[in-house]
Amino acid sequence: MKPAVLTGKHYMTGDEACAEGALAAGCLFFGGYPITPATEIAEHMSARLPEVGGTFIQMEDEIAAIASVLGASWAGRKSMTATSGPGFSLMMENVGLGVCTETPCVVVNVQRAGPSTGLPTMGAQGDMMQARWGSHGDYEIIALAPASAQEIFFQTITAFNLSERYRTPVFIMTDEIIGHMSEKVIIPPANQIEIEWRPKPQGRKDRFLLYKPGENGVAPMPAAGEGYNIHVTGLTHDEKGYPVMSVEAQQEMMTRLKRKILDNLDDIITTEEHQLNDAEIVLVSYGISARTSMAAMHQARAMGLKVGFLRLITVWPFAQAQIQALAERVKGFITVEINLGQIHLEVLRAAAGKVPCHLVGHSGGAIISPDQVIATLKEVF
Amino acid sequence: MQATDQSATVKNHDHPLEDLIRSDRIPHIWCPGCGIGTAFAACLTAMKATGHDLKKMCMVSGIGCSGRAAGYVKLDSFHTTHGRAIPFATGLKLGNPELDVIVFSGDGDLFAIGGNHFIHAARRNMDLTVICLNNLNYGMTGGQVAATTPFLARTTTTPAGNPEEPFNLPLLAWASGAIYVARWTILHTRELTECIQKAISKSGFSFVEVLGPCPVNYGRRNRENPLQTLKLYREQTIIRNNADPSDLAIDFSKKVVLGEFVDKERATCIENYDRICRLPM
Question: What is the DSSP secondary structure assignment for residue A368, as one 8-state letter?
Answer without folding.
Answer: P
